[in-house]
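Customer ticket, subject: "Can you confirm the structure for PIN like domain-containing protein?"

Message body: Hello, I'm evaluating your service for our small team and ran a test protein. I'd like someone to confirm that this is what the system normally returns, since I don't have a reference to compare against.
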Amino acid sequence: MRSQFSHHYERPDDGEVDGALVNATVVLDTNVLLGLYRASPDLRTKRLEVFKTIGERLFLPYQVGVEFHRNRPVVAAGISDAYAALRTATTTLHKAVKSFGGDGRYDETSAAVRALVDPLLGQIVDGLAALEEDDPHRIDLADDPILNQLEALLEGHVGQPPRAKNLAARVRDFTSIRVPLRLPPGYDDAHKAAASGAAAAAGDYLLWCEVLAHARKHETDVVLVTDDAKGDWWQAGGAGMPTVPHPLLVSEFRRETGHEYYQLDSRELLKRAPALDISVSTENLEEEDELARATAEAESIVERIAAFQGHGMLSATATPVESELGRLARAGWRADPGERERLEESGRLWWGAREGLLGSRLVSSLLTAGAGERAALSALEEARRRDDLASSLVGDGQSRGAFATIEAARRGMAGLSTYEVERIMQASKDWTSSQGRERLDQAARDIERVTDELDADQRHLPQS
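Agent reply: Thanks for trying us out. I re-ran your input and got the following:
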């Protein structure tokens, strides 16, 4: 048995992995390239030195190039967004000062306030402009030094775009075969299909197909460098054992190419850089640890948001919430502990609203909690109308219509849920207060209870 399932038992030793790093083709995943924008200048320089030393053995799948160029503007704009938020705050303060005592009864006080605040605002605006100009994390998208270095490094090492026919076949295989059978990689991204399309959900598998084809054509072992930490790429080794590439990836690679497959994350790659005659400092490795931890936290929240979108539970009113979570996620790894706690709490806040408002009792509880009366009453009326319609359809034996109506109720009621999230975020200066946590926990319990009740009703509908 062991011979047939050797990929479940084998663990390459350090010498074998170092040898592969020196001799095999090295494939870079999208998150590794985007990670250059999140790293400090010193760590970024060290990573690029490793890539340059690997040199001609680098390979970038075409799928990675597509994802990199799609996401680069958002990631690169992280620090610029932070400065923009500060500028917006100064503008808001300026308007408040300008309108202070607007009816003319407090002219002397208004003048005193302006005399106090205006010079300070001027100093802040000028100081922010100077800081932003010299900030090493600031990236000018029109003249991006990271992109310029990557272009020089990867010229001639990028895969060719797949033919439309082949791409469509791969997406069908992913959707109809690999996801149901949970064949790695990519099945953990299947939820993205509803919001972003099947091709977007299949991104990891499309990358994998290119890796297999490249290894077959060039008859080479492969080292894939990825910072994707999900279980469709890695398998936890258990007590005292290291995390290893998913055994099914190793097995498929051997079967399809006749060669060996290795997998590293950015930290492990840097740790093994001495095999390439590159020295690495303790500070570099410590920053890699910190970056990996914070990035995992941020990606967890981003994945949750994507899952909610995939279930059709978000409305247009969620945009401000998503924007704030996105900003915190991009800046999370270098934020202070308070900011990180805010990031985590905002994730809990969003999670509490995941299922939407699915019944009249929960809408009523929002009224009690102080939600906007007009919005809550409107949602309450809509919930009752849909409940009545669903009941009449069940009574008439039209179970298919009842199912559709319940699903419509889920989508329609999600708007009030995200409205409540916005209201809490806007009204609460301290998201981590015990009172705020209690409200979120209670909302989560209410949502879970009502969701269970609705699911139970749905299960008892007659099947047509």
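A couple of notes from the result: The radius of gyration is 27 Å. The first strand starts at residue 25 and ends at 28. Feel free to reply with more questions.
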